[in-house]
Amino acid sequence: MEQHAIVGKSFARVDAKEKVTGAAGYTRDINLPGMLYGKILRSHLPHAVIKGMNAEKARNLKGVRAIVTGQDSTGEKYGLGTIPMFADRDPLARDKVRFIGDGVAAVAAVDEDVAEEALDLIEVEYEERPAVFDPNDAMSHGAPAIHDYAEGNINFKQKRGFGDVEKGLREADFIREDTFSTQPVQHAALEPHAAIASWDNGDKLTLWASKQDLFFTHIGLSRTLGIPRSNIRIIKPHVGGGFGSKLEMFDLDFCAALLSRKCGNPVSICYTREEVFIASRVRHPSVIQFKTGMKKDGTISALDARIIMDTGAYAATGPVAAMLALHMLVTIYSIPNIRVEVYSVYTNKPVAAAMRGH
Fold it and tell me: Which one, 32, 53, 114, 179, has least CB within 10 Å?
């Protein structure tokens, strides 16, 4: 019998001892000299135009070192990777907020208490707009437009199939129609999202962050900060759970970097548990409609499917999740006639993204 060096043998996890003894270092454990602490001001409205902002009172608060708003970014939007349809979000809202929790400003201060106090002193003038929370309502005629470019609030749609669905349904001995609804689910990793940013001589950024993937953040920071990717280094300490919720760039990554550049000190931002629920990610709520033709011998003669995925206020991985639903729906069944329509739809709710295997 062939002997293998790895297969069939038991090995200890390389990080097991560090984790069970408490020696493992996570992002929040890092403490850099002169480090400040950041907090993000979030919208209390689901849909509104930002008419104005006054941060003078916050700037004058003792212990505050820097304040940034959406107007301090390059104006470049970001999303998942470099695909244009995914780049629909400002790192801090510039013109409009689209869900309760959308970031509009950030503060760096000597401690978190001062930063929180400063947030209360920032005055934001909103002009509230109608909001929509159901994807079917969002697709209907006359629904509020969440993003101007997205007709019917649809950010991705695709239709695929093969065979003759109508013929397959006619040949069926029994036809059943079903509608399934799934709800949003929060990943709720033990470690909240966290980032620490520090600049070297004002032009090179190092970011320590709790991430599952570094490259989406690398691309997003380059776009929104207006610096080459070669000037950005991202270090991933141990990660206390992610499950899909830590794949992308978040507002805290951008805010930590911009605040640090503005004040010259390292800046640490860590989401509260409440922020994890409203400002990170959830699994896509979906409405799945099936019309299925069955024969008496148990075979499926036809399937006509429509899947609507609620991606929330921004696309994130919505198009990816919709495309995967389209292609993977019938991977384990032999169905000669099939038609599938998928939609990724904007609503004024927290953003959805990958969870485990989408």
Answer: 179
DSSP label at 284?
P
> 3-state DSSP call for residue 180?
strand
3-class SS shares of the chain: helix, strand, coil, % to 5: 25, 30, 45
pTM higher than 0.85? yes
Which of 153-180 are b and which e, b meaning 16 or more Cβ less than 10 Å from the residue's Cβ?
bbbbbeeebeeebeebbeebeeeeeeee
Quote the CA–CA distance of 313 and 347 in Å, as a whole number.
5
Q: Answer whether 106's CB lies under 8 Å from 94's CB.
A: no
Residues 72-91 as b or e (16 or more Cβ within 10 Å = b): bbeeebbbbeeeeebbbbbb
Both structure tokens of 333: 């069944």
CB 138 within 8 A of CB 285: no
Q: What 3-state class would DSSP assign to 106?
A: strand
Count, in order, helices (H) and strands (E) of the chain.
9, 17
Q: What is the pLDDT of residues 324-349, one digit of tens each?
A: 999 888 888 899 999 999 999 999 99
Report the phi/psi class of residue 142: left, alpha or beta, with left for phi > 0 and alpha for psi in -120 to 50: left
